[in-house]
Amino acid sequence: MKKKAIVRGEQINGQLFAIMVERIKSGKYPPMTRLPSEHEMARMFDVSHNTANKVIKQLESAGYVSMRRGIGTFVNTLSTGYDLKFIQSFRDWCVSQGHTPQTEVLVCREAQDTDVQEFIFLFSSEPVSPGNFIYLERLRCLDGRPVILEKRFLSRDFFSLKDREALAGSYMELTRMIKRIKIHESRRKLKVVTTPSSVAAHLDLKSGSKTIEITGKTTDESGAVVDFDNLYYHPDHFEFVYTVGVQA
Q1: At residue 9, what are phi and psi to the nearest 5 degrees?
Q2: pTM score, two decimals?
Q3: Which of 55, 116, 155, 246 is the most buried (most CB within 10 A)?
Q4: Helices H, strands E: what count in the chain?
């Protein structure tokens, strides 16, 4: 990566902070790796130790890094901040956090028996006919980096193959705002799994490494199935926190 020079006469703290944020977002400093120390940063950018110290503290306050006494400063994972009790839009979250979301539709076709057998029976008490569903695969990217691989089975009662273009946008907006589907329930199961080779290739992970898998079933207010989904989250960029209250 080409080194960016600090422009003298302008706010040095702000310039250096912006450079470090860009490097974190671009993957130059990946999650869980050590950030250059105050001394190293001062030498790299020809700034004072006081300036470097202030920028590191700014990065910590903004949630980009965590300081570990006696060890160093480490880049945080890009936490979604998702509350697992609610459905959230990946696109809206990215924009709210200053990130750029992208979506690529990899597959959009009629579902096949082999697709259905992968996981759909985990969420249905009755046999499911693939002819009633559309199979969708999407790759979600954050600032150009692949972070989520989605596999969905969309009910033909609500979707058609003509929706392919719209499916490159916000899925939540399509279901709730455009199609006006009234979601009643969305059940989710979260677990850490060994990454399938096909998923690893899309998310730039090593085959056999661990990833976060969320499987689920969504129904409308009449109880009709809207979709089944199988989502894989890049473990370096997401963490899910579930908060429970304690009764006194």
Answers
A1: 95, -15
A2: 0.69
A3: 55
A4: 7, 8
Cα torsion 26, 28, 34, 35: sign:
negative
Tokens at residue 115, please? 């697709």
Residues 147 and 200 sit within 8 Å (Cβ to Cβ): no
CA distance 138 to 134: 13
Q: Residue 47: its pLDDT value, please? A: 92
Q: Are 31 and 234 in contact (CB under 8 A)?
A: no
Q: What is the pLDDT of residues 17-45, one digit of tens each?
A: 989 988 887 778 887 788 999 999 999 99
Determine the straight-line distance between the first and last CA of the chain, rounded to whole angstroms: 54
Distance (Å, whole) CA 209 – CA 205: 7
Query: Which residue ranges form the domains of the chain, and what is each CATH number?
Result: 12-75 (1.10.10.10), 90-233 (3.40.1410.10)
- Secondary structure percentages of the chain, helix, strand, coil, to 5: 30, 30, 40
Q: Tokens for 171? A: 């899925």
